[in-house]
Task: inverse folding
């Protein structure tokens, strides 16, 4: 959408609470496109102007409309939002990680964690679904027995480092990290390259063939893009209740 001197894109929305969105400001005459993660009611810059994230209306987790308005008076009282919100994902974080713990994980993995995924892992250390969760139209289900991995060396089945040896290494290179083993396949995040932080799904029927580059290239070709980031993936998950 056009907003004054720029076009505005929305990478993801999250019903929270609080309601949040990541907005991308694409100025008409600039090389950079800054990203702003804002909560409902907060303002963000668009060139020399100030705009506000004023509403979110959701038909479903994948169909939604964001409303923004230019702020002409910094003291204005914004109108209350009226949009309908979809049911949020019911994920229970395991806790938090500090920088030293994340650095240790990177050492054990032999790769740097993608920036967005590292931040999500820092804030949640994985997540336990309270009920089954799916992305509409994608054949997988996250459950309490098949959560989003965290740093849990004492529980290998839920541990991110252990998951790479068991679930990734037979099929893919270190350019990707398995972040969950739901029923139906694998959830992976790209750890390198132009698609860093993008989340993919690999169907279990495509987890075949010998190890090594030739067969891996075939498997990479089967990866289904799900989200630009882990946070967007979370926002697309729908509880099965």
Result:
């Amino acid at each position: 959408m056009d907003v004054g001197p720029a076009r505005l894109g929305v990478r993801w929305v999250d019903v929270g609470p609080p309601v949040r969105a990541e907005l991308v400001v694409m100025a008409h005459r600039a090389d950079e496109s800054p990203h702003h993660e804002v909560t409902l009611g907060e303002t963000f810059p668009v060139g020399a102007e100030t705009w506000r994230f004023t509403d979110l209306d959701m038909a479903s987790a994948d169909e939604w409309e964001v409303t923004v308005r230019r702020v002409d008076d910094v003291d204005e009282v914004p109108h209350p939002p009226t949009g309908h919100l979809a049911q949020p994902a019911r994920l229970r974080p395991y806790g938090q990680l500090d920088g030293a713990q994340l650095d240790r994980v990177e050492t054990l993995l032999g790769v740097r964690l993608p920036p967005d995924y590292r931040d999500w892992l820092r804030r949640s250390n994985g997540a336990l679904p309270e009920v089954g969760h799916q992305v509409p139209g994608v054949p997988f289900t996250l459950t309490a027995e098949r959560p989003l991995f965290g740093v849990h060396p004492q529980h290998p089945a839920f541990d991110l480092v252990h998951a790479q040896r068991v679930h990734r290494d037979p099929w893919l290179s270190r350019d990707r990290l398995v972040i969950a083993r739901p029923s139906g396949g694998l959830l992976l995040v790209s750890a390198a390259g132009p698609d860093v932080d993008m989340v993919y799904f690999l169907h279990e029927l495509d987890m075949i063939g010998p190890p090594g580059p030739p067969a891996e290239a075939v498997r990479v070709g089967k990866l289904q893009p799900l989200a630009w980031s882990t946070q967007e993936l979370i926002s697309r998950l729908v509880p099965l209740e």
The two ends are 34 Å apart (CA to CA). Residues 157 and 166 are 9 Å apart (CA to CA). The mean pLDDT is 90. Residues 2-70 form one domain.
